[in-house]
Hints:
Number of domains: 1
Oligomer: single chain
Structural class: mainly alpha
Number of strands: 0
Order of helices and strands: HHHHHHHHHHH
Shape: globular
Radius of gyration: 20 Å
Strand content: under 5%
Amino acid sequence: xxxxxxxxxxxxxxxxxxxxxxxxxxxxxxxxxxxxxxxxxxxxxxxxxxxxxxxxxxxxxxxxxxxxxxxxxxxxxxxxxxxxxxxxxxxxxxxxxxxxxxxxxxxxxxxxxxxxxxxxxxxxxxxxxxxxxxxxxxxxxxxxxxxxxxxxxxxxxxxxxxxxxxxxxxxxxxxxxxxxxxxxxxxxxxxxxxxxxxxxxxxxxxxxxxxxxxxxxxxxxxxxxxxxxxxxxxxxxxxxxxxxxxxxxxxxxxxxxxxxxxxxxxxxxxxxxxxxxxxx
Length: 280
């Protein structure tokens, strides 16, 4: 049954969607984007295609690696939380028997944990040590992909199903787009599910994720690395406090954006399916 709380959450999602659509970037943002686009166009097309293909493959590989023991533990943790609310929860898909507020509660538990992990990872990078700095891209990719996966699980969408695996990757991609392009990314992931039919076992939407616009967030992350390296020698008690704070803060902010986008997507999925079942 479609409840007042469902309606309130749906209205909040529509307001959030409108904010994406009405976003207007400033002149500096567009100038930076134009400079980046010109620089990328200077790279031979063959090299660009190979690079984007490598990034796509890396994302799929990281996603697959995350499907190991840690995700099984997280899956059991999510199911255990759900069973406190409702005893007949057996599988991840059963979580959709819960109300939207109950699902939000479970999701927020995972979001808080993921943001903390992201800040810690950024703080470690902020020390300026060679290995954490070199591994920063893979580290942030893993943290944020895992955040999207756990958000999906928290709303009853099993990322071990091929469609859900690829859909979560596309949600991750859209969440990492510049703010001025997020409305376009949102429209894409929503159209992909609205064009499909249950059960979603195979994904037939857009599979290429890495492109010129997606690189903008990676450039911002590179600026974080540059700031960390520039400030790592300014130490207090042998700790680079300023660079550690920059690393933690930038990572926390990015994961907050990713988890908010992912939660909006899976709330939309849940409520849209409920509307169709109840005829609202």
